[in-house]
Design goal:
The complex is a heterodimer of chains A (408) and B (176). Chain A is mostly beta strands and 408 residues long. Chain A has two helices and 17 strands. The chains are: A mainly beta (408), B mainly alpha (176).
C-alpha cells in the first residue's frame, strides 16, 4: 500500500480548503443563498497518574493520548434554496486533517429529508454533540471514546468512536404530534466500518475509516437508523427517548458482522440537563486461526464478543458563567480476546491483559467556566477503575484535564 | 317438545374454510404457540448475545519438561509474547504444547478425540519407519489428515498447529 507523505497530505488539505473557500467564501452569493461559517477549537492537556508501560510506545493506535491535544474544525453551511442545503466540515485531530462532513440535504418536507454525501449517520444522542464546543467535558463518554481513554490499545477505543463519518445516504425527518410531542426518525445505508488489513480480522480497524483510503473492497453497505421522541413537559423542560441500531459486515469477504444497538435518554430543565445512553456492539471475529486468541475458541457462540458502554451525564448551571459537571461512564467487554493487534496485518501476537470479561468504570467531576462568550475553560478530574491490572499492577488510575475551547 | 338444534353455516366457498382454519391457527398461536415461540426466540437471541470461551491458553501446565516435551506458551513469565521451546526431539509436540495448549486439552478431555490422538501417535510411529524421507512425510501427513477428520476437537488442534505456529513460533518447521 502506498501511503501519501506528510507533504502530500498537507498539499491535499490546502487544496481542499482553498476549493472550499472559492466555492463558498469568495464566490458571489446566489439569490436566496444563506451562508453560515462556523468553527471551533479545543486545546486540552491531559495528565494521567500512570502511563502504562506496555502502552508507552511510539505514537499510534495503542498509545494513550496524554499531554497536549488539539481538536479544531471549520464548517460551512449553505442554504442553497428552500429545499436544498449543503454542509462541509474540515476538522483536525490527533491523526491529522479529516473531512467530517460533505453532504447535501434535500428537504422535501419536515417529515422527509434526503441526505447524501459524507456524514456521520444518525445514531444515539451524542453524535450531534461530538464537536468539543458542543459538549462540556474535555473528552467524550467512554462508549463514544476515540483515543482519550486510558488503555485504549487494550480496548480498541469505545463501542462506537465518534465521529464516524462515512459515505452514504440517509433519510430522516421530524413530525410533530400536536404541539408537545416531536417524533424523529432516520434510516441510512453507508459504507460502514472496515478491517481489510488483517489476515484474520477480529475487530473493526477504526484507522481504516480515515486517511489515506476511504474506499472499501466491501460493496455491501451498513444499514441502520434511529427512532426518537421528544416530549415538551413545560416551557422550560423536555424529555427525549431514542433507540438506534446499525448492522453490517466489516471484512472484505462479507462474512464477519457487527451490530450495534443503543438507547438514549435526555431530560432538560432550564439549563440543567441529564443525559444517559447505553450501547452494545456484537462483533464477530475470524476464528480460523485459533492461535491468536487468548482462550480456546468455543465451538458454540465462540466467534464474537460484546462490548457494552454506558454513561450518565449531569450538567448543572451554578452561577451564570459557571457550570458544574458530573459523569459516570463504563464499558464491559465479554468474549474471547484476540492477541493479534488490530491493524497490524499479520498474526503475530502480543500479551493482552484483557480477559474474557473485563470492565472499566470512570467517574468524572468537572467545571465549565465561560470566560467570555464562545470561549470556555474546561476542568475535570477523572477516577478510573479497571477490573484487571496493567503491566505495573495497577487497577485504578486518576487523570485530569485542563482545556479551553473557543467557537466562532 | 321439538329439539332445537343450533344452526351452523356451512362454508360457502373454499376461502371461508381457509379463513376458519386461519382463525383456529390464530387462536392456537395466541393461546399457546406465541408464548412458546417468544420464549424460544428470546432464549435463542440471548444465547446469541452471550459469547463463550474455552479454557485459557496460559492455564495449561505441564508437570515437568521430562514428562512432557514442551512448555506452555510464555510460561517463562517474561511477558515477552514469544515461545519458550526446547528441543525434545519432537517438533510437533513442542508446537502443540507451546501454542495450542488449550485446544489440545479440549481434545484430551474428549474420549473420542483422546482415542484418535492415541491412534495418531501409533500411526506416526508406523509412518516413521518408511524407507524414504518423502515416504515418512507422506505417511505422517496422512495420519494427521485422519486425525483431523475424527472430529471438531481434533480438527481444532490440527488447524491451530497449521496456523498459529507460524504466528507464535516462526523459527521451527511445522512438519516433522
Amino acid at each position: 500500500m502506498i501511503r501519501p507523505t506528510a507533504t502530500e497530505r498537507l498539499i491535499a488539505v490546502v487544496a481542499f480548503a482553498t476549493t472550499l473557500l472559492l466555492l463558498f467564501g469568495i464566490a458571489p452569493a446566489q439569490a436566496g443563498e444563506d451562508r453560515n461559517f462556523a468553527g471551533s477549537a479545543q486545546f486540552d492537556y491531559m495528565f494521567a497518574r500512570h502511563d502504562s508501560i506496555q502502552d508507552a510506545q511510539a505514537p499510534g493506535p495503542r498509545t494513550p493520548l496524554t499531554g497536549f491535544t488539539t481538536e479544531a474544525a471549520l464548517k460551512i453551511a449553505v442554504d442553497i434554496s428552500d429545499h436544498l442545503s449543503a454542509n462541509f466540515k474540515l476538522c483536525y485531530g490527533c491523526h491529522g486533517f479529516e473531512l467530517d462532513m460533505a453532504y447535501f440535504d434535500f428537504r422535501v418536507a419536515d417529515e422527509f429529508n434526503l441526505r447524501t454525501g459524507r456524514f456521520s449517520p444518525t445514531f444515539g444522542a451524542f453524535n450531534l454533540r461530538h464537536d468539543p464546543a458542543n459538549h462540556p467535558f474535555s473528552d467524550k463518554p467512554l462508549p463514544y471514546d476515540m483515543g482519550r481513554m486510558l488503555r485504549k490499545g487494550d480496548w480498541n477505543n469505545g463501542v462506537l468512536p465518534a465521529p464516524f463519518p462515512m459515505t452514504g445516504a440517509e433519510v430522516n425527518g421530524t413530525h410533530w404530534v400536536g404541539s408537545d410531542v416531536q417524533v424523529d426518525y432516520a434510516a441510512y445505508v453507508a459504507m460502514g466500518f472496515k478491517n481489510e488489513s488483517d489476515l484474520h480480522p477480529t475487530d473493526i480497524n477504526f484507522q481504516e475509516s480515515h486517511l489515506p483510503y476511504y474506499v472499501t473492497a466491501d460493496p455491501r453497505p451498513v444499514t441502520g437508523g434511529r427512532l426518537g421522541m421528544t416530549i415538551r413537559l413545560s416551557d422550560v423542560s423536555d424529555a427525549t427517548l431514542g433507540v438506534s441500531g446499525m448492522y453490517g459486515t466489516y471484512d472484505f469477504r462479507n462474512r464477519l458482522s457487527y451490530g450495534i444497538v443503543g438507547i438514549d435518554i435526555a431530560m432538560r430543565v432550564g439549563r440543567a440537563t441529564v443525559r444517559a445512553e447505553y450501547l452494545v456492539r456484537r462483533q464477530q471475529a475470524d476464528t480460523s486461526n485459533p492461535g491468536i486468541f487468548k482462550y480456546a475458541v468455543a465451538s458454540e457462540h465462540g466467534d464474537f464478543f460484546l462490548k457494552h458502554g454506558m454513561y450518565l451525564e449531569l450538567k448543572l448551571p451554578a452561577a451564570e458563567p459557571l457550570m458544574v459537571l458530573g459523569r459516570v461512564d463504563a464499558m464491559i467487554r465479554q468474549g474471547n480476546v484476540s492477541e493479534a493487534p488490530v491493524g497490524a496485518g499479520g498474526d503475530f501476537v502480543v500479551d493482552s491483559p484483557l480477559m474474557n470479561n473485563v470492565t472499566v468504570v470512570r467517574e468524572t467531576i468537572g467545571l465549565a467556566y465561560d470566560i467570555e462568550r464562545n470561549f470556555r475553560l474546561k476542568l475535570s478530574l477523572e477516577t478510573w477503575q479497571f477490573s484487571y491490572a496493567d503491566a505495573d499492577n495497577h487497577k485504578n488510575d486518576v487523570s485530569a484535564h485542563v482545556g479551553v475551547v473557543g467557537s466562532l | 317438545m321439538p329439539t332445537i338444534t343450533r344452526m351452523t353455516l356451512a362454508p360457502t366457498s373454499g376461502w371461508s374454510g381457509v379463513f376458519d382454519m386461519a382463525k383456529r391457527n390464530l387462536w392456537l398461536e395466541c393461546t399457546g404457540l406465541v408464548p412458546v415461540a417468544c420464549v424460544t426466540a428470546i432464549a435463542a437471541s440471548c444465547a446469541d448475545w452471550s459469547p463463550s470461551v474455552g479454557s485459557a491458553q496460559e492455564e495449561c501446565s505441564y508437570s515437568s519438561p521430562e514428562g512432557n516435551p514442551g512448555r506452555a506458551y510464555d510460561s517463562d513469565g517474561t511477558g515477552s509474547g514469544t515461545c519458550v521451546l526446547f528441543n525434545a526431539g519432537d517438533n510437533c509436540d513442542d508446537y502443540q504444547a507451546a501454542n495450542c495448549c488449550a485446544l489440545s486439552r479440549n481434545c484430551y478431555y474428549d474420549p473420542l478425540c483422546q482415542s484418535a490422538d492415541e491412534e495418531l501417535d501409533h500411526c506416526t510411529t508406523d509412518a516413521s519407519s518408511a524407507l524414504t524421507p518423502a515416504g515418512v512425510q507422506a505417511g505422517i501427513a496422512q495420519c494427521r489428515a485422519v486425525f483431523a477428520a475424527s472430529g471438531a476437537y481434533a480438527q481444532g488442534v490440527i488447524a491451530c498447529e497449521a496456523t498459529c505456529c507460524s504466528a507464535r513460533c516462526v523459527t521451527l518447521p511445522l512438519t516433522q
